[in-house]
Design goal:
The complex is a heterodimer. Chain A contains eight helices and seven strands, in the order βββαβαβαααααβαβ. Chain A is of the alpha/beta class. Chain A has a domain of 148 residues. Chain A is rod-shaped and about 125 Å long. Chain B folds into two domains: 60 residues; 37 residues. In chain B, 44% of the residues lie in helices and 17% in strands. In chain B, β2 and β3 form a beta hairpin. The longest helix of chain B has 14 residues. The chains are: A alpha/beta, B alpha+beta. At the A-B interface, α6 of A face loops of B.
C-alpha cells in the first residue's frame, strides 16, 4: 500500500501516521473509496471494512454481523445464498414506482343516455305520424337526425369513459400487487440474510474465540461479550483483509506488530 | 360509504391521522383501511389522501351486502353447508353429489 500525506509518501504493510495530523476516519474513508484525500493506493476492501475497517476507542461493533462479514470475506457460502440471490434479483425487477395512469374522462351518466334515447324515439314517432297523414316530415327528420347523432356521440363517450376507468383500475391494481410482492420478497430476503448470518456465526464462533485469545485485550467467557475494540481486532484477524486497516488504539507494540497479528496492512493514526 | 385503503407507510400514517381528527366522517377504521361516511366531507378527506399519496391510497365505494341481495341458491348453499354434520368437510366435497353450486362455477359467475 501507498499513502500520500501532503508531500510525503508512505509505503509498506505498516504505515505510522501518528503526529501527521491525519484523521483515522479520513484514511478509512479513502480506503473505502469515499474520499480522495489522503491518497491511498491499495487493494479494494471487503465487506468487513464497513464494520471493523477502522478500530478506535469509542467504536461500537455489531459483533455477529461483523463476524459474518469476515466469513464472507473468505468466500464462505451458506445454503441460503441461492435464495438470497433469487430474492435480490426479483426485488430488482419489481419496479416500485407508480405507473402513469391514462387521463380520466368525465363520466357520462346513464340517465343522460336514457333521456337522449327517449328523445330519439319521440322524434321517430313524429316522423312516422307525419308520414302517415301525408304531411311534410322534413323538419321532424332533421330533428331525428340531430338527436340520433347526439345519442351516438354520448354513447361513444360513455364507452370510452368506461374503458379508461377499467384501464386506470387495472394499472392501479397491478401497481399495488407489485408493492405487496415487493414487501413479501423484502421480508423473505431479510429472513434469508438473517439465516445466512446465523449459519456463518455458528460456523465461525470457535475460530472467533481463538482469534480473541490471540489478539491483545481481555478475553471473556462468552466470545460475544468481548469489548468492541477487542472483538474488531479478532474479526480482522480471521477475515481476509487485502486493504489497509486503520488503527487508532494502543493495543500493539508497533504498527508492524499489529500488521503481523492481524495479517493485514495497517495504518496507525 | 367510501373505502380508503393505504398501501404505504406514509399513507397509513395520514389515514390514521384523518381518522383521529375527523371522527365524524369515519364510520369504521380497520388497520390500514377505513370506511368514511358517504358525505361530501368524507369524500373530501378521501380525496385529500389520494391527492397526497397517489396510487398508494386506494378508494372505493362500499355498499352494505344483505343476504337478501344474493340469489337464493347461494343463500341455500351457505345455510346447508354451515349446517353440515362433519365440520372438517371442505365445501367442494360437500357440494359434489348434492344439489349445490360448484365452487368453480360460482367463481366464474358474476353476482
Amino acid at each position: 500500500m501507498k499513502v500520500r500525506v501532503g508531500a510525503a509518501t508512505h509505503e509498506g504493510v505498516a504505515v505510522d501516521l501518528r503526529g501527521r495530523r491525519v484523521s483515522g476516519a479520513a484514511v478509512a474513508a479513502s480506503v473505502r473509496g469515499e474520499r480522495c484525500l489522503p491518497v491511498v493506493a491499495c487493494a479494494s476492501p471487503t465487506a468487513v471494512y464497513e464494520y471493523a475497517g477502522r478500530v478506535h476507542p469509542s467504536m461500537g461493533l455489531r459483533t455477529r454481523t461483523a463476524l459474518a462479514a469476515a466469513a464472507r470475506s473468505r468466500d464462505e457460502e451458506t445454503p441460503h445464498d441461492a435464495d438470497i440471490a433469487a430474492y435480490r434479483e426479483e426485488l430488482a425487477n419489481l419496479d416500485p414506482s407508480p405507473p402513469e395512469l391514462v387521463e380520466a374522462t368525465e363520466a357520462v351518466s346513464d340517465a343522460e343516455v336514457a333521456d337522449l334515447r327517449e328523445t330519439v324515439a319521440a322524434h321517430r314517432g313524429r316522423v312516422t305520424a307525419r308520414r302517415a297523414v301525408g304531411e311534410d316530415a322534413a323538419d321532424a327528420r332533421a330533428d331525428l337526425r340531430d338527436a340520433a347523432t347526439a345519442l351516438s356521440e354520448r354513447e361513444t363517450r360513455r364507452a370510452a369513459a368506461r374503458e379508461t376507468r377499467e384501464l386506470r383500475r387495472e394499472a392501479a391494481r397491478a401497481y399495488r400487487d407489485r408493492l405487496e410482492r415487493r414487501r413479501e420478497v423484502a421480508d423473505a430476503l431479510a429472513n434469508a440474510r438473517r439465516a445466512a448470518r446465523a449459519t456463518l456465526v455458528d460456523r465461525f464462533t470457535g475460530e472467533f474465540a481463538a482469534a480473541l485469545a490471540a489478539v491483545p485485550g481481555p478475553t471473556p467467557d462468552d466470545p460475544f461479550d468481548a469489548s468492541s475494540v477487542t472483538a474488531a481486532l479478532a474479526v480482522l484477524r480471521l477475515a481476509e483483509t487485502p486493504a489497509p486497516v486503520v488503527l487508532e488504539v494502543d493495543r500493539f507494540p508497533s504498527p508492524a506488530a499489529a500488521s503481523e497479528a492481524l495479517d493485514a496492512p495497517v495504518v496507525r493514526c | 360509504m367510501i373505502l380508503v385503503v393505504a398501501h404505504s407507510r406514509a399513507g397509513r400514517r395520514d389515514l390514521r391521522n384523518v381518522c383521529r381528527s375527523h371522527e365524524d366522517c369515519v364510520v369504521r377504521q380497520l388497520g390500514r383501511a377505513a370506511l368514511f361516511s358517504a358525505t361530501e366531507f368524507g369524500a373530501f378527506q378521501a380525496l385529500r389522501l389520494r391527492e397526497k399519496h397517489g396510487l398508494d391510497v386506494q378508494l372505493g365505494v362500499v355498499e352494505p351486502f344483505e343476504p337478501a341481495d344474493a340469489p337464493s341458491h347461494l343463500r341455500e348453499a351457505a345455510r346447508r353447508y354451515e349446517d353440515r354434520d362433519e365440520p372438517s368437510t371442505p365445501y367442494r366435497q360437500f357440494a359434489s353429489g348434492r344439489d349445490l353450486p360448484d365452487p368453480d362455477e360460482m367463481c366464474g359467475a358474476d353476482l
